[in-house]
Amino acid sequence: MIRFLMQTLLIATATAWAPPPDAVRLEVLLEKTIFQVDVIALDLWLGPTSVAQVRRLCATPEEAAADAGRASRDSLAAIIASSRDARVRVVFQRDVSLDRFLDGVITDMRRAQGAGLLGAEGFQHVASGLPVWLAPLRAEGLHEGDRFLYRIAGDTLRTRVERAGGAVVIDQTDVGVEHRRALLGSLVAPGGGFTDQLLDQLPRRVCAP
Which CATH class is domain 27-49+82-189? Predict the structure, then answer.
């Protein structure tokens, strides 16, 4: 019975973090990032609604006449930042302190606010909350192989932080548009470490023949 319950729990957990059906996956590996970590691996999955928006963007007359990879970067960033069905995985390849990680996250959130991808009140709420929400990581910091998993469904953001060995340190659910916009907007804010690669990949993955 215990074994059955454990298997059921594992299946339910895997399903909760599975990418959306028909999702498009974007992958970025950085050696110099906004988080001041030597290497970070990022995976972003966008659900079918966002994918359809990108296809419509590519199909507009001005975009159809151009290469698929030249779709408006501002419009692509807005589609990602407003996604209501997405998954994000961040895997650390080097050790970093929590303070350095937070400095990088808040810097990109500020960039997102400046670009209109995140409201001022949303920025203040998330920026002030992050040190509290991530406090369980302060003593040990972040290490090679540690990972952040994010699941966005509507205006609900679930955050799960796992150590390299599989131990779950944080499993938190937040409701409110500001949470998903803070996460996704920071990934595509002008000047951010992930922005160029994500915005270059997206139209190629969705619109290229």
Answer: alpha beta
The Cα 105–Cα 92 span in angstroms is 14
pTM to 2 decimal places: 0.85
H-run or E-run covering 44: strand 40-46
Residues 184-201: tens digit of each pLDDT: 999 999 999 899 999 999
In angstroms, the CA 38 to CA 95 distance is: 9
pLDDT at 127: 97
Q: What is the pLDDT of residues 125-174, one digit of tens each?
A: 999 999 999 999 999 999 999 999 999 999 999 999 999 999 999 999 99
Helices (H), 20-119: 48-59, 61-64, 73-81, 98-114
d(CA 192, CA 110): 10
Structure tokens at 181: 């916009």
Q: What is the dihedral of CA 95, 141, 160, 101, to 10 degrees?
A: -70
CB within 8 A of 10, min separation 6: which ones? none
DSSP calls for 95-121: -B-HHHHHHHHHHHHHHHHHTTSS-HH
The whole-angstrom separation of Cα 173 and Cα 179 is 10
